[in-house]
Give the backbone structure.
Amino acid sequence: MKQPMPGGGGRFVRLAETARPAIALCIDGRPASALEGDTLLVALLVQGRHLRQSEFTASGDGARAGFCLMGACQDCWVWDDAGRRLRACSTVVAEGMSVRTTPPASPWGETGARP
Amino acid sequence: MTPRTVVVGTGPAGVRAAQALVQAGVRPIVVDEARRDGGQIYRRQPEGFLRSHATLYGSEAAKAQALHGDFDALRGQIDHRSETLAWNVTSGQLHTVHTPSGCTQTLDFDALIVCAGATDRLMPVAGWNHAGCYSLGAAQIALKAQACAIGSRVVFMGSGPLLYLVAAQYLKAGAQVEAVLDTSPALPGWAALRGLLRRPRLLLRGAALVAGLRRAGVAVLNGVLPLRIDGTAAGGVSGVVVRDARGAERRFAADAVALGWHLRAETQLADLARCEFEFEPLSRQWLPRIDDCGRVSTPGVYLAGDGARILGADGAESAGRLAALAALHDLGHARGRALFAAEQDGLKRRLATMDGFREGLARAFPWPHAHAAGLPDDAVVCRCEAITAGELRRSVLELGSQELNRAKAFSRVGMGRCQGRYCGHAAAEVVAASARIPVERIGRLRGQAPVKPLLMNTQEVGDGGCDD
C-alpha cells in the first residue's frame, strides 16, 4: 500500500514495467512499497516529492530530488537506519530495506564509518 | 610476458577495448562503477524488465544488442569488476574501491585504457537548484533504466542532439512533454552543415525527430534565452520562463525540467594520470591532448570514447578498439601489433568522419557562453552548496581571483559534492568575464582524488571482510 509523503503525489511517473513484483520497504519509519528492480531514488520519488533537504538552507535552498541519476552529482544521498549514506540513484531496493531522508544526528554515522 | 592491462568503463569504448585485448590473447581487468555493462548510452535495464531492445534504443537497437552480446561473450575471458570505482591513478597504478563493500585494491598496469565517458554539460539557470530540475541524461536514464518520467509535465531546455532525442523518447513513451526550448538558432550556418553532412543519415534522423515533436503539437522554440525556473524551496519546480527569439517572454508550466547543453568529458582520471590538456576553442572546454590513437603525454595511459573527445557511441566503439590495439602495439605484443597494423588505417578514417560530424554539432548547437557569463548575480551557479554568480564574481572583483582554482578556493564553487562537474564550465565563463580575461587563460579546475566521495568504511584488502 502506498503511503504518500508530505506534498501529495509522487514526482516521478511510471510509464511501463509496472507488472514487477512489489516489495515492502520503510521510508522514515513508515511502511511503503516499491517494485523489484527499482532504484531507491525511483522508489522514493514515485511516492514523494523529494529525497532530502539541502544542507544549505540558510542560502534559501530547499528540497532536493536528485539531478544526474548516473552517480556523478551526489545530490541523491539518503541514509539507512544505521546512519550509513546511500546514493539513491545507484542503490537497488531490497525487501525490508529501511531508509531515512534526514541525516543522522551523529556526523560519524553520516560518513558511513563502521563502529 | 603477458601485459597487465586495465580498462576503465564498460560503455561502447570500454567494451570494444576489452574485446580487442581478448582477441589479441590478453586477459584485461575491466572496471566499471555501474552494476551492468553498456555505459550510459546503451545502459541495460535491470533484470526482470521486459521492454525490447527496439523499445529501449530505437534506431540504435542493433548496435546496443551487438555491444551487450559481445560483452556477454567476453565473460570468462576478462576479469570484470562491476560496482567498482576507479578513484585515483598514480604512476603505473590504478586505485579502485568496490562500492558496496568498501574494499579497495591497487591494480598495477602496463597499459591503462580509460573510457570514462561523459556527463551532460550544464549551464546554470536561475532556479535550477529546485527539486524537479534534472540533467537531460537523468531524464533519459529514468525512462530507459526505470521506465519512469521525471515528472507529469516536462520541459526540455538546452541544446544539442540529446535534447530532441530524449524529448521524442518521452513523447513516444506516453509522457507529457510541455516544450522543447533550444538556445541555438533554428538554422545552422554553412560551416555547421558541412560537418553535419559527414553523417547524412544521422542528420536526417535528427531532422525527423524535430518534425515528429512539432507534429505532435509540442512547442519547439529555437534561439531562446533561459530566464529562470520558477518554483519554491519546498515544492520544487512550477514552470520555466524564457525570452524567445522575437524577444517576448514565454512561460511554460511544468513540474520537471530536463537541462543539458551537449556533453562534457569525464577527464578526472586523465588529470590524475598527469596527462597534458589543451583548450578546444570550438566547444570552449579543456580536453586531454591525445594523438590519433588515444595516446596521451603519460606513457602507458590511453584514452578513448567521450571521455577524450565527444564523438558519440559509434566513434567511441572505434576509438576503444584503436586505443587498446595501440597499447598492445606499444608494449611490443606480437598479436596486438599485427591487429594494429591491419586495422589502424580503417579505424582512423572512421574516427576522422566522426570528428567532422562532432565539429558540425558543436557549431550547430553552440555552448551559449555569453549566457553563462551574463547570469544574474542571484542565480545559483553551484547547485551543491547554493553559491550564486554574485558570490563567484565577488571572488574576482573584491578578492582579486584571476584564476579559476583561486576563485574556487575563495567561493567554494567547484568544491561541493559534484566536484565541479556541473558548475565548472559556467563558473569559468563567469570568472573570465568578471576578470576580463579570455576563458582559455583563466585556467581549468584541476581533478582531485578521490574523483568521487568515498565512504569512511573504505578499507584495504586484507583488512577483514574483503574478497580478493
Remarks:
- Chain B touches chain A through 62 residues (CB under 8 Å).
- The mean pLDDT of chain B is 95.
- Chain B has three domains: 5-119+264-360, 122-261, 370-441.
